[in-house]
Every structure is written in structure tokens, then in C-alpha cells.
Design a protein that fits this description.
Blueprint: E1 3-5, E2 11-13, H1 20-38, H2 41-47, H3 54-73, H4 81-94, H5 96-106, H6 109-116, H7 119-129, H8 137-154, H9 163-186, H10 194-216, H11 224-251, H12 254-260, H13 263-274, H14 282-297, H15 304-314
Antiparallel strand pairs: 1-2
Helix pairs in contact: 1-11, 1-13, 3-10, 3-11, 4-9, 4-10, 5-6, 5-9, 6-8, 6-9, 7-8, 7-9, 7-12, 8-14, 10-11
């Protein structure tokens, strides 16, 4: 063990490096901050921002944050990463935000949030198709539990269904899941940090949103609270959150990261109870517990299959009499 000399002359051991499990836990905790921050969007939008103009808010959240990241890092895509960044930016941001807002406008908020909670389930399927991973019945099952749990928390008796809203909600979950999965598949170029990478995608997504934002119109007046809301959504909810999110996707299982997204509607519901005084009935409390349990279960997979594979690999080769090896 490497040692250092203390002022008293005695040798003091250097601190041991963090174990892989501890490092993974730390990465998971940092990545989980992203959906928690995203869960504040509902409160900020309703309490601070001017009414209407949701696509302007989406573009204001993405494009300035992306340009700021580019200015700070001074790193631009090269080669194939120009079109890859454009694809990932459109999927994760440029297409996801409009579908999210259409669903939110045409459906009760609880229905839209429940459909968004289906993202881990979709990612569990896409990880097989796109990444070539094995089917995980464990994560598929817990993905269903997460949807049920979020539904208990946010669905109310006035939950109605609109065909366009339902299609937009399911489409939003699908494009977000595909964006996360492709982000995992393509990774990011060597030497490019998570902030620069987030800047590429936020800029691409913001540019895709810009024409829609111009059609949506600009708020007639932006007061101090609204300016603070836009800054929160852009700097914290955009630049910081996406930097942590893409760093987590690189280091963790893509399905495990998707399960963390369940924290977004749960955070929104919790803030509604704490800040706005909205009460939670026993069914909602049980839904909270189910969704949190699903999120935790989605971070692990049973090791039985791994042990079985190791056991088979360690077994000696048995030769059948009369046959050559």
C-alpha cells in the first residue's frame, strides 16, 4: 500500500479508492438529480411563466443553454457527429418537447404523466432491438409496476382520453426512449466532455424547436419572476440537468437510467403537495411507494442468470465414451 509521511513522521496510508459499487451509486445519485429537476418544470411553468406559449418556453429552455455550453467548452462536432448530434438532439429535445406539450394540452396532466412513465418499459424493449441486450423480464415487469404506481399518484377522477393527446403522449415516450437508447449506442467521441455533448444536443434540439416557437409567438410581457423561471429551466433544467443525464447514460445501464425518469412525475406531485397545498390520499401514497420501489428495482437485475452461466463455464467437459474430444 502506498503511504505518505505525516507531520509526526509516521507513515499514513493513502485513502483507498472507491469501490465500483460505491462509484456506481454516486453516479446513479447524480443522474437522479436530472429527473428531479425536470419534475420542477410543472410548478415553474404554472407559477412563474406567462400563460400560453409552451413551445417558446421549450425553445428558450434548450437553445440558449446549448449555445452557452458551446461557448464555455468551445468544442464542435466533427465528421459523422454532425448528423448524429442532430438526430439525438431532435429525438431527446426537439421532437420530445412538442409531443409532451400537445399531450399536456389535450389530456389531464395525470394521464400525460402516466404515459411518460412508460419510457422505462419502451427502453427495456429497445435495448434488445438496438443494443442487442438480452430480454429482461425483471425490468419489463418493474416497468409495468412503475406505470401503475405513477398512475395511482397522478391520475384523478377527471382523467379523460383524447385520441390525439394519447398518440402524442405515447409518441413522446417513444422518441425519448429511442433518443436515450441511441445515445447509449453511439456514446460520445473521445475527449468530448458531457457538457460539450449536452451543448451539441441542446443546440440541435433548440434549432429544431425555433420555427415552432416563432409560430407559437412570444409572450407580451416577461416580468422578473418569469425571467427567473426561464433561467431556471434553461440553466438548471437544461444545461446542468442534461450534462448530468448524458454523463449517467454513458456510465450506467440505459434501462437503469430510464427508470430514474419515474422521479419526474413523483417530484411534480410532491411539490404540488408541499408548495401548493395539494393533498395526497392513501391511494396516491401507495402509488408513490410502488413507483419508488420500481425505480429502485430497475437499478439492478437478478444475478441468478450470471451465476448459472459461471457455473456452466466452470463445469468440466464430460466426454461421451466412444467419441473423440
Amino acid at each position: 500500500m502506498t503511504t505518505t509521511t505525516s507531520p509526526s513522521g509516521t507513515a499514513a496510508p493513502l485513502p483507498a479508492p472507491a469501490s465500483p459499487a460505491a462509484a456506481r451509486l454516486g453516479t446513479t445519485a447524480l443522474t437522479a438529480l436530472t429527473p428531479v429537476v425536470w419534475g420542477t418544470t410543472y410548478l415553474v411553468t404554472t407559477e412563474l411563466l406567462p400563460a400560453g406559449h409552451p413551445l417558446f418556453a421549450a425553445a428558450a429552455r434548450a437553445l440558449p443553454a446549448g449555445l452557452l455550453a458551446l461557448a464555455l467548452t468551445r468544442v464542435l462536432p466533427r465528421g459523422a457527429w454532425w448528423w448524429r448530434a442532430a438526430v439525438l438532439g431532435v429525438l431527446n429535445i426537439g421532437a420530445f418537447f412538442p409531443l409532451l406539450f400537445v399531450a399536456a394540452q389535450r389530456l389531464p396532466g395525470g394521464v400525460a404523466a402516466t404515459m411518460g412513465a412508460a419510457t422505462p418499459f419502451v427502453v427495456a424493449v429497445l435495448s434488445v432491438v438496438v443494443l442487442g441486450e438480452r430480454w429482461s423480464r425483471w425490468r419489463l415487469a418493474w416497468g409495468g409496476v412503475g406505470v401503475v404506481g405513477v398512475g395511482f399518484v397522478v391520475l384523478g377522477p377527471d382523467a379523460g382520453l383524447d385520441v390525439v393527446g394519447v398518440l402524442a403522449g405515447l409518441g413522446g415516450a417513444a422518441v425519448m426512449a429511442l433518443g436515450v437508447t441511441l445515445t447509449k449506442r453511439w456514446g460520445r467521441p473521445p475527449g468530448v466532455g458531457p457538457m460539450a455533448f449536452a451543448g451539441w444536443l441542446l443546440t440541435a434540439g433548440g434549432l429544431a424547436l425555433l420555427p415552432l416557437a416563432l409560430l407559437d409567438g412570444v409572450p407580451a410581457q416577461v416580468d422578473a419572476p418569469a425571467l427567473g423561471g426561464y433561467l431556471w429551466l434553461g440553466i438548471v433544467g437544461g444545461l446542468v440537468a442534461y450534462t448530468l443525464w448524458f454523463a449517467g447514460i454513458r456510465r450506467l445501464s440505459v434501462t437503469a437510467v430510464a427508470f430514474l425518469g419515474l422521479l419526474s412525475p413523483l417530484t411534480a406531485a410532491a411539490l404540488g403537495a408541499v408548495v401548493l397545498g395539494q393533498s395526497l390520499d392513501p391511494l396516491q401514497v401507495h402509488g408513490f411507494a410502488l413507483a419508488l420501489l420500481a425505480m429502485a428495482a430497475g437499478q439492478v437485475v437478478p444475478r441468478r442468470r450470471a451465476r448459472a452461466s459461471v457455473t456452466r463455464a466452470d463445469e468440466p467437459c464430460r466426454l461421451t465414451p466412444g467419441r473423440a474430444a
